[in-house]
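In the previous lecture we treated proteins in isolation. Real proteins rarely work alone, and many bind small molecules. This record shows how such a complex is specified: first the sequence, then the SMILES for 1,6-di-O-phosphono-beta-D-fructofuranose.
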Amino acid sequence: MCSAIVTLNPILNYPSRTNLFKPKLPNSQPRLNLWAQPTYRMASPSSFLGGFNYRIRASDNANASGDDCGNVICTLLEYMGKNGVNVSDELAVLFSHLEYACKRISALVASPLNHNIGKSFSVSGGSSERDKAKPLDIVANDIVLSSLKNSGKVAVMASEEDDAPVWLADDGPFVVVLDPLDGSRNIDASIPTGTIFGIYNRLVELDHLPVEEKATLNSLQSGNKLVASAYVLYSSATILCTSFGSGTHAFTLDHSTGDFVLTHPNIKIPPRGQIYSVNDARYFDWPEGLRRYIDTIRQGKGLHPKKYSARYICSLVADFHRTLLYGGIAMNPRNHLRLVYEANPLSFLAEQAGGRGSDGKSRILSLQPVKLHQRLPLFLGSPDDIEELESYGDVQQKINPGYEV
Ligand SMILES: O=P(O)(O)OC[C@H]1O[C@](O)(COP(=O)(O)O)[C@@H](O)[C@@H]1O
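The predicted 3D structure, ligand included, written as C-alpha coordinates:
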Protein backbone atom coordinates (compact mmCIF):
# COMPACT_ATOMS: atom_id res chain seq x y z
CA MET A 1 0.00 0.00 0.00
CA CYS A 2 1.07 3.57 -0.53
CA SER A 3 0.52 6.50 1.76
CA ALA A 4 0.36 9.99 0.40
CA ILE A 5 1.16 13.45 1.72
CA VAL A 6 -0.63 16.24 -0.09
CA THR A 7 0.15 19.90 0.39
CA LEU A 8 -1.34 22.86 -1.40
CA ASN A 9 0.90 24.73 -3.76
CA PRO A 10 -0.45 28.27 -4.10
CA ILE A 11 0.89 28.62 -7.64
CA LEU A 12 -1.11 26.48 -9.98
CA ASN A 13 1.27 25.02 -12.44
CA TYR A 14 -0.47 23.22 -15.25
CA PRO A 15 1.89 21.92 -17.89
CA SER A 16 1.25 23.52 -21.25
CA ARG A 17 0.55 20.36 -23.19
CA THR A 18 -1.67 20.53 -26.20
CA ASN A 19 -2.00 16.81 -26.71
CA LEU A 20 -2.99 15.68 -23.23
CA PHE A 21 -5.32 12.96 -24.32
CA LYS A 22 -3.62 11.58 -27.38
CA PRO A 23 -3.04 7.84 -27.25
CA LYS A 24 0.57 7.18 -26.48
CA LEU A 25 0.83 4.15 -28.67
CA PRO A 26 -0.54 4.65 -32.15
CA ASN A 27 -1.38 1.43 -33.87
CA SER A 28 1.39 1.70 -36.41
CA GLN A 29 4.16 2.35 -33.91
CA PRO A 30 6.48 -0.62 -33.39
CA ARG A 31 6.61 -1.36 -29.70
CA LEU A 32 9.73 -3.43 -29.34
CA ASN A 33 11.30 -0.89 -27.05
CA LEU A 34 8.26 -0.13 -24.99
CA TRP A 35 9.74 -0.82 -21.59
CA ALA A 36 13.35 0.06 -22.39
CA GLN A 37 13.28 3.59 -21.03
CA PRO A 38 10.80 3.86 -18.20
CA THR A 39 9.65 7.40 -17.69
CA TYR A 40 9.32 7.28 -13.92
CA ARG A 41 9.02 10.68 -12.42
CA MET A 42 10.17 11.08 -8.87
CA ALA A 43 7.49 12.05 -6.40
CA SER A 44 6.64 15.69 -5.62
CA PRO A 45 6.60 17.33 -9.04
CA SER A 46 4.89 20.63 -8.45
CA SER A 47 2.81 20.21 -11.58
CA PHE A 48 1.23 16.98 -10.44
CA LEU A 49 -2.44 17.25 -9.50
CA GLY A 50 -2.63 20.74 -10.89
CA GLY A 51 -0.71 22.56 -8.22
CA PHE A 52 -0.71 20.07 -5.36
CA ASN A 53 2.56 18.71 -4.14
CA TYR A 54 2.09 15.02 -3.74
CA ARG A 55 4.49 12.51 -2.28
CA ILE A 56 3.90 8.81 -2.31
CA ARG A 57 5.61 6.66 0.28
CA ALA A 58 5.54 2.94 0.19
CA SER A 59 4.25 1.83 3.57
CA ASP A 60 5.40 -1.21 5.47
CA ASN A 61 3.04 -3.59 3.72
CA ALA A 62 3.95 -2.41 0.22
CA ASN A 63 4.08 -5.30 -2.16
CA ALA A 64 7.51 -6.85 -1.81
CA SER A 65 7.42 -8.16 -5.37
CA GLY A 66 7.58 -4.56 -6.51
CA ASP A 67 4.38 -4.73 -8.46
CA ASP A 68 3.19 -1.41 -7.14
CA CYS A 69 6.16 0.46 -8.69
CA GLY A 70 7.76 1.11 -5.30
CA ASN A 71 8.34 4.64 -4.21
CA VAL A 72 7.57 6.65 -7.32
CA ILE A 73 4.57 7.94 -9.16
CA CYS A 74 3.53 5.14 -11.42
CA THR A 75 1.21 5.41 -14.39
CA LEU A 76 -0.92 2.60 -15.70
CA LEU A 77 1.33 2.25 -18.73
CA GLU A 78 4.39 1.96 -16.50
CA TYR A 79 2.57 -0.42 -14.22
CA MET A 80 1.88 -2.77 -17.11
CA GLY A 81 5.62 -2.95 -17.80
CA LYS A 82 8.54 -4.88 -16.39
CA ASN A 83 8.52 -3.35 -12.92
CA GLY A 84 4.82 -3.92 -12.54
CA VAL A 85 2.65 -6.78 -13.73
CA ASN A 86 4.58 -7.23 -16.99
CA VAL A 87 1.69 -7.89 -19.35
CA SER A 88 2.31 -8.71 -23.01
CA ASP A 89 3.02 -5.79 -25.34
CA GLU A 90 -0.18 -6.61 -27.20
CA LEU A 91 -2.31 -6.27 -24.08
CA ALA A 92 -0.50 -3.04 -23.16
CA VAL A 93 -1.32 -1.58 -26.60
CA LEU A 94 -4.95 -2.56 -26.21
CA PHE A 95 -5.10 -1.02 -22.74
CA SER A 96 -3.54 2.23 -23.89
CA HIS A 97 -6.30 2.54 -26.48
CA LEU A 98 -8.97 1.71 -23.92
CA GLU A 99 -7.46 4.30 -21.59
CA TYR A 100 -7.67 6.86 -24.35
CA ALA A 101 -11.30 6.02 -25.06
CA CYS A 102 -12.18 6.35 -21.39
CA LYS A 103 -10.46 9.72 -21.13
CA ARG A 104 -12.61 10.90 -24.02
CA ILE A 105 -15.75 9.57 -22.34
CA SER A 106 -14.69 11.20 -19.09
CA ALA A 107 -14.35 14.54 -20.89
CA LEU A 108 -17.67 13.97 -22.63
CA VAL A 109 -19.73 13.28 -19.52
CA ALA A 110 -18.22 16.34 -17.82
CA SER A 111 -18.72 18.61 -20.82
CA PRO A 112 -21.17 21.51 -20.71
CA LEU A 113 -22.09 20.53 -24.26
CA ASN A 114 -23.21 16.99 -23.55
CA HIS A 115 -26.87 17.93 -23.09
CA ASN A 116 -26.86 19.15 -26.70
CA ILE A 117 -25.93 15.73 -27.97
CA GLY A 118 -29.43 14.49 -27.16
CA LYS A 119 -30.95 17.09 -29.46
CA SER A 120 -29.09 15.85 -32.51
CA PHE A 121 -29.99 12.19 -32.00
CA SER A 122 -33.04 10.04 -32.19
CA VAL A 123 -32.56 6.72 -30.51
CA SER A 124 -34.73 3.70 -31.00
CA GLY A 125 -34.86 0.25 -29.40
CA GLY A 126 -35.37 -0.90 -25.82
CA SER A 127 -38.51 -2.51 -24.51
CA SER A 128 -39.42 0.41 -22.25
CA GLU A 129 -38.63 4.11 -22.13
CA ARG A 130 -36.03 3.51 -19.38
CA ASP A 131 -34.36 0.67 -21.30
CA LYS A 132 -33.78 2.79 -24.42
CA ALA A 133 -30.15 3.62 -25.18
CA LYS A 134 -29.40 7.26 -24.40
CA PRO A 135 -27.53 9.43 -26.90
CA LEU A 136 -24.44 9.42 -24.70
CA ASP A 137 -24.50 5.61 -24.62
CA ILE A 138 -24.26 5.62 -28.39
CA VAL A 139 -21.49 8.20 -28.50
CA ALA A 140 -19.52 6.36 -25.81
CA ASN A 141 -19.97 3.15 -27.74
CA ASP A 142 -18.62 4.77 -30.91
CA ILE A 143 -15.64 6.18 -29.03
CA VAL A 144 -14.66 2.75 -27.71
CA LEU A 145 -15.30 1.08 -31.05
CA SER A 146 -13.00 3.45 -32.89
CA SER A 147 -10.27 3.06 -30.26
CA LEU A 148 -10.48 -0.71 -30.43
CA LYS A 149 -10.34 -0.63 -34.22
CA ASN A 150 -7.27 1.61 -34.09
CA SER A 151 -5.53 -0.68 -31.65
CA GLY A 152 -5.44 -3.50 -34.20
CA LYS A 153 -5.49 -5.88 -31.24
CA VAL A 154 -9.14 -6.80 -31.10
CA ALA A 155 -10.84 -9.53 -33.07
CA VAL A 156 -14.33 -8.83 -31.78
CA MET A 157 -16.11 -6.25 -29.65
CA ALA A 158 -19.40 -7.15 -27.99
CA SER A 159 -21.17 -4.19 -26.47
CA GLU A 160 -24.29 -3.90 -24.38
CA GLU A 161 -25.37 -1.21 -26.83
CA ASP A 162 -25.19 -3.41 -29.93
CA ASP A 163 -27.55 -6.22 -30.88
CA ALA A 164 -24.68 -8.33 -32.21
CA PRO A 165 -20.90 -8.35 -31.72
CA VAL A 166 -18.75 -6.47 -34.22
CA TRP A 167 -15.93 -8.37 -35.93
CA LEU A 168 -12.89 -6.11 -36.19
CA ALA A 169 -9.74 -7.99 -37.20
CA ASP A 170 -9.10 -11.65 -38.05
CA ASP A 171 -5.71 -11.60 -36.38
CA GLY A 172 -6.69 -9.53 -33.31
CA PRO A 173 -5.56 -11.54 -30.28
CA PHE A 174 -8.33 -10.27 -27.98
CA VAL A 175 -12.07 -10.21 -27.49
CA VAL A 176 -13.52 -7.19 -25.67
CA VAL A 177 -16.94 -7.19 -24.00
CA LEU A 178 -18.23 -3.94 -22.55
CA ASP A 179 -20.87 -1.65 -21.23
CA PRO A 180 -19.63 1.68 -22.60
CA LEU A 181 -21.62 3.95 -20.28
CA ASP A 182 -23.38 2.32 -17.38
CA GLY A 183 -25.83 4.41 -15.38
CA SER A 184 -26.26 6.90 -18.21
CA ARG A 185 -29.76 7.86 -17.14
CA ASN A 186 -28.06 9.59 -14.21
CA ILE A 187 -26.10 11.90 -16.47
CA ASP A 188 -28.48 14.85 -16.50
CA ALA A 189 -28.11 15.14 -12.73
CA SER A 190 -24.30 14.77 -12.89
CA ILE A 191 -24.46 11.56 -10.89
CA PRO A 192 -21.48 9.21 -11.38
CA THR A 193 -21.44 6.85 -14.33
CA GLY A 194 -18.93 4.28 -15.54
CA THR A 195 -17.53 2.08 -18.27
CA ILE A 196 -17.06 -1.65 -17.71
CA PHE A 197 -15.01 -3.97 -19.87
CA GLY A 198 -13.71 -7.52 -19.92
CA ILE A 199 -10.95 -8.95 -22.10
CA TYR A 200 -10.60 -12.55 -23.32
CA ASN A 201 -8.19 -14.22 -25.69
CA ARG A 202 -9.57 -14.90 -29.17
CA LEU A 203 -10.42 -18.59 -29.46
CA VAL A 204 -8.20 -19.58 -32.39
CA GLU A 205 -9.92 -22.95 -32.65
CA LEU A 206 -12.99 -21.08 -33.90
CA ASP A 207 -11.14 -19.21 -36.66
CA HIS A 208 -12.59 -21.42 -39.41
CA LEU A 209 -16.22 -20.57 -38.56
CA PRO A 210 -18.34 -17.96 -40.36
CA VAL A 211 -17.78 -14.47 -38.94
CA GLU A 212 -21.13 -14.12 -37.21
CA GLU A 213 -20.80 -17.44 -35.48
CA LYS A 214 -17.25 -17.00 -34.29
CA ALA A 215 -17.99 -13.45 -33.14
CA THR A 216 -20.81 -14.71 -30.94
CA LEU A 217 -19.02 -17.75 -29.56
CA ASN A 218 -15.88 -15.77 -28.76
CA SER A 219 -18.01 -13.28 -26.84
CA LEU A 220 -19.84 -15.96 -24.87
CA GLN A 221 -16.78 -17.19 -22.98
CA SER A 222 -17.30 -17.92 -19.34
CA GLY A 223 -15.96 -15.36 -16.86
CA ASN A 224 -13.28 -17.68 -15.53
CA LYS A 225 -11.49 -17.26 -18.88
CA LEU A 226 -11.08 -13.50 -18.44
CA VAL A 227 -7.54 -12.26 -19.09
CA ALA A 228 -8.26 -8.83 -17.63
CA SER A 229 -11.16 -6.63 -16.71
CA ALA A 230 -11.69 -3.06 -15.62
CA TYR A 231 -14.17 -0.37 -14.82
CA VAL A 232 -13.73 3.36 -15.15
CA LEU A 233 -15.68 5.52 -12.72
CA TYR A 234 -16.57 9.03 -13.88
CA SER A 235 -17.13 10.90 -10.64
CA SER A 236 -15.40 13.63 -8.64
CA ALA A 237 -12.33 11.70 -9.77
CA THR A 238 -12.01 9.53 -12.85
CA ILE A 239 -10.77 6.17 -11.62
CA LEU A 240 -9.70 3.18 -13.65
CA CYS A 241 -9.75 0.02 -11.58
CA THR A 242 -8.30 -3.05 -13.21
CA SER A 243 -7.02 -6.57 -12.77
CA PHE A 244 -4.78 -8.63 -15.00
CA GLY A 245 -5.30 -11.64 -12.76
CA SER A 246 -2.85 -10.63 -10.05
CA GLY A 247 -4.81 -8.41 -7.68
CA THR A 248 -7.08 -5.43 -8.21
CA HIS A 249 -5.51 -2.01 -8.59
CA ALA A 250 -6.97 1.45 -9.13
CA PHE A 251 -5.48 4.41 -10.98
CA THR A 252 -6.73 7.97 -10.76
CA LEU A 253 -6.72 10.28 -13.77
CA ASP A 254 -4.38 13.22 -13.27
CA HIS A 255 -6.07 15.82 -15.43
CA SER A 256 -2.91 17.94 -15.52
CA THR A 257 -0.87 15.27 -17.32
CA GLY A 258 -3.51 12.97 -18.79
CA ASP A 259 -2.04 9.96 -16.97
CA PHE A 260 -3.82 7.36 -14.89
CA VAL A 261 -1.68 7.22 -11.74
CA LEU A 262 -1.60 4.25 -9.37
CA THR A 263 -3.44 5.34 -6.23
CA HIS A 264 -4.92 2.11 -4.82
CA PRO A 265 -2.49 -0.80 -5.29
CA ASN A 266 -3.67 -4.27 -4.29
CA ILE A 267 -7.15 -3.39 -3.11
CA LYS A 268 -8.41 -5.81 -0.49
CA ILE A 269 -12.14 -5.72 0.11
CA PRO A 270 -12.93 -5.93 3.85
CA PRO A 271 -14.14 -9.48 4.67
CA ARG A 272 -17.29 -7.80 5.99
CA GLY A 273 -18.81 -4.41 5.57
CA GLN A 274 -21.66 -2.57 7.20
CA ILE A 275 -23.35 -1.28 4.06
CA TYR A 276 -25.95 -2.84 1.79
CA SER A 277 -26.72 -1.32 -1.57
CA VAL A 278 -29.99 -2.13 -3.30
CA ASN A 279 -33.07 -0.44 -4.73
CA ASP A 280 -35.30 -1.25 -1.78
CA ALA A 281 -38.37 0.40 -3.25
CA ARG A 282 -38.72 -3.10 -4.72
CA TYR A 283 -39.00 -4.64 -1.26
CA PHE A 284 -42.53 -5.94 -1.84
CA ASP A 285 -41.43 -7.70 -5.05
CA TRP A 286 -38.59 -9.46 -3.29
CA PRO A 287 -38.72 -13.12 -2.25
CA GLU A 288 -39.11 -13.92 1.41
CA GLY A 289 -35.42 -14.85 1.92
CA LEU A 290 -34.10 -11.54 0.67
CA ARG A 291 -36.60 -9.57 2.73
CA ARG A 292 -35.63 -11.51 5.82
CA TYR A 293 -31.91 -10.99 5.15
CA ILE A 294 -32.25 -7.23 4.71
CA ASP A 295 -34.58 -6.90 7.73
CA THR A 296 -32.05 -8.83 9.82
CA ILE A 297 -28.93 -6.88 8.94
CA ARG A 298 -30.74 -3.54 9.17
CA GLN A 299 -31.52 -4.34 12.78
CA GLY A 300 -28.02 -5.52 13.58
CA LYS A 301 -29.28 -9.06 14.20
CA GLY A 302 -27.17 -10.83 11.57
CA LEU A 303 -23.90 -12.69 12.03
CA HIS A 304 -22.20 -9.30 12.19
CA PRO A 305 -23.82 -7.71 15.24
CA LYS A 306 -23.93 -4.19 13.79
CA LYS A 307 -26.80 -2.33 12.19
CA TYR A 308 -26.14 -2.03 8.47
CA SER A 309 -26.63 1.21 6.62
CA ALA A 310 -28.06 1.66 3.11
CA ARG A 311 -26.34 3.42 0.20
CA TYR A 312 -27.71 3.23 -3.33
CA ILE A 313 -26.53 5.49 -6.14
CA CYS A 314 -28.29 3.40 -8.82
CA SER A 315 -25.15 3.48 -10.90
CA LEU A 316 -23.52 0.08 -10.82
CA VAL A 317 -19.90 1.16 -11.19
CA ALA A 318 -20.22 3.73 -8.41
CA ASP A 319 -22.04 1.32 -6.08
CA PHE A 320 -19.47 -1.38 -6.79
CA HIS A 321 -16.50 0.97 -6.33
CA ARG A 322 -17.71 1.99 -2.88
CA THR A 323 -18.33 -1.65 -1.97
CA LEU A 324 -14.84 -2.64 -3.05
CA LEU A 325 -13.31 0.01 -0.80
CA TYR A 326 -15.64 -0.10 2.21
CA GLY A 327 -17.03 -3.64 2.07
CA GLY A 328 -20.63 -4.87 2.30
CA ILE A 329 -22.88 -5.90 -0.60
CA ALA A 330 -23.92 -4.18 -3.82
CA MET A 331 -26.87 -6.02 -5.29
CA ASN A 332 -29.55 -6.05 -7.89
CA PRO A 333 -31.70 -9.10 -7.10
CA ARG A 334 -33.85 -9.04 -10.25
CA ASN A 335 -32.90 -10.19 -13.75
CA HIS A 336 -31.60 -6.84 -14.85
CA LEU A 337 -27.82 -6.66 -15.09
CA ARG A 338 -25.99 -8.49 -17.88
CA LEU A 339 -23.79 -11.50 -17.28
CA VAL A 340 -21.42 -10.83 -20.19
CA TYR A 341 -20.96 -7.06 -19.99
CA GLU A 342 -21.37 -6.29 -16.30
CA ALA A 343 -21.50 -9.28 -13.94
CA ASN A 344 -18.43 -11.14 -15.25
CA PRO A 345 -15.96 -8.23 -15.44
CA LEU A 346 -17.00 -6.89 -12.01
CA SER A 347 -16.97 -10.35 -10.41
CA PHE A 348 -13.42 -10.84 -11.70
CA LEU A 349 -12.36 -7.59 -10.01
CA ALA A 350 -14.24 -8.54 -6.82
CA GLU A 351 -12.54 -11.95 -6.63
CA GLN A 352 -9.12 -10.50 -7.36
CA ALA A 353 -9.69 -8.19 -4.36
CA GLY A 354 -10.69 -11.11 -2.12
CA GLY A 355 -14.44 -10.59 -2.59
CA ARG A 356 -17.19 -12.53 -4.34
CA GLY A 357 -19.62 -12.25 -7.22
CA SER A 358 -22.76 -14.40 -6.98
CA ASP A 359 -26.19 -14.70 -8.57
CA GLY A 360 -27.52 -15.61 -5.15
CA LYS A 361 -26.81 -19.30 -5.64
CA SER A 362 -23.73 -19.77 -7.82
CA ARG A 363 -20.40 -18.16 -8.50
CA ILE A 364 -20.82 -15.75 -11.41
CA LEU A 365 -17.47 -16.57 -13.05
CA SER A 366 -18.40 -20.26 -13.33
CA LEU A 367 -21.59 -19.62 -15.29
CA GLN A 368 -21.61 -20.39 -18.99
CA PRO A 369 -23.34 -17.53 -20.83
CA VAL A 370 -25.91 -18.80 -23.33
CA LYS A 371 -27.05 -15.45 -24.74
CA LEU A 372 -25.11 -12.25 -25.26
CA HIS A 373 -27.62 -10.04 -23.50
CA GLN A 374 -28.45 -12.57 -20.80
CA ARG A 375 -29.59 -10.91 -17.55
CA LEU A 376 -29.37 -12.24 -14.02
CA PRO A 377 -29.54 -11.28 -10.34
CA LEU A 378 -26.18 -9.94 -9.15
CA PHE A 379 -24.64 -9.79 -5.67
CA LEU A 380 -21.11 -8.41 -5.35
CA GLY A 381 -19.08 -7.76 -2.27
CA SER A 382 -17.42 -8.91 0.93
CA PRO A 383 -17.03 -12.69 1.18
CA ASP A 384 -18.63 -13.04 4.62
CA ASP A 385 -21.59 -10.86 3.70
CA ILE A 386 -22.24 -12.77 0.46
CA GLU A 387 -22.01 -16.08 2.29
CA GLU A 388 -24.51 -14.93 4.88
CA LEU A 389 -26.88 -13.64 2.19
CA GLU A 390 -26.74 -16.94 0.28
CA SER A 391 -27.58 -18.83 3.46
CA TYR A 392 -31.07 -17.28 3.26
CA GLY A 393 -31.63 -19.40 0.13
CA ASP A 394 -34.40 -17.52 -1.54
CA VAL A 395 -32.80 -14.22 -2.60
CA GLN A 396 -33.39 -13.96 -6.36
CA GLN A 397 -36.27 -11.70 -7.31
CA LYS A 398 -38.54 -13.52 -9.76
CA ILE A 399 -41.16 -10.79 -10.14
CA ASN A 400 -39.85 -8.31 -12.66
CA PRO A 401 -42.70 -6.07 -13.72
CA GLY A 402 -40.54 -3.59 -15.68
CA TYR A 403 -40.12 -0.52 -13.58
CA GLU A 404 -40.69 2.94 -15.03
CA VAL A 405 -38.01 4.68 -12.96
O1 LIG B 1 -33.69 -0.03 -11.56
P1 LIG B 1 -32.72 -0.83 -10.77
O2 LIG B 1 -33.16 -2.24 -10.62
O3 LIG B 1 -32.43 -0.18 -9.45
O4 LIG B 1 -31.39 -0.91 -11.63
C1 LIG B 1 -30.36 0.02 -11.51
C2 LIG B 1 -29.16 -0.47 -12.21
O5 LIG B 1 -29.39 -0.36 -13.59
C3 LIG B 1 -28.29 0.29 -14.20
O6 LIG B 1 -28.65 1.61 -14.42
C4 LIG B 1 -27.94 -0.40 -15.47
O7 LIG B 1 -29.10 -0.44 -16.27
P2 LIG B 1 -28.96 -0.11 -17.79
O8 LIG B 1 -27.90 -1.03 -18.31
O9 LIG B 1 -30.32 -0.38 -18.35
O10 LIG B 1 -28.53 1.33 -17.86
C5 LIG B 1 -27.17 0.22 -13.18
O11 LIG B 1 -26.22 1.23 -13.32
C6 LIG B 1 -27.92 0.28 -11.89
O12 LIG B 1 -27.18 -0.35 -10.89
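Summary for your notes: The two ends are 40 Å apart (CA to CA). The longest strand covers residues 329-338.
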